[in-house]
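JOB MANIFEST
job_type = single_chain_structure
chain_count = 1
residues = 242
[input]
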Amino acid sequence: MAGNVEVAPADGAWAGYARLPYGVVRLLGGLVFSLGLILVVIGGAELFTGNNLIVMAWASGKVRTRDLLENWVVAFAGNFVGAFMTAILAFYSTQYSFGGGAVGLTALTTAHAKTSLAFIPAVALGILCNALVCLGVWMCYGARTSVDRILTIIPPVAAFVAAGFEHSIANIYFISIGLFIKSGAPDAFWTAIGKTAGDFPNLNWSNFLIGNLLPVTIGNIIGGSIMVAAVYWFVYLRKKLP
């Protein structure tokens, strides 16, 4: 699919990265990942998981059920297309061959781990993830400047990534790029990482769409809509009895 890719030995900076403690690697990944929500909030984009907070307006009678569901469907579809197309572009850039194939091996390992989750754990990880994401968006409402918003977003997003929670929209990219690498990477890549496509048996389209994306999306909706939106609506916005 991607043509011939020249892969260099895995050494230098990537070897040093691989020797970092597990917790440090997760934390660094979380700090970098927070850029996504920063771009969404500062840039005024729409993110399905953050839009679960619309439940607050729905519970107050300011948004119809039809409008709420339509927003979720359109936002999810747009996010899916964007993440999927980004994965295609990243694959054809042959970025997976960088660092002697270390980038591609990490992508494959990450995607395989996600598609190996059982249904209930995937739902639970999705709940925990979007509770933190929506808390980050909720706290942004108290910010007055772009710097305030950025500093508010980073801790909860870094926390959910470091903890290994599951985000449906992010998984569209992570699992898709893993699938593209598994099916289309040249022999030189597999030789460089010392693996074969058969070493990632659970990484397939069925496990992506049904085994991961479905339960994680359900969990994200529960975490954002109930654990954050509904709770804060009940605390701050519901009509008090006389």
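[summary]
The chain has a mean pLDDT of 91.
The CA atoms of residues 10 and 100 lie 4 Å apart.
exit_status = 0
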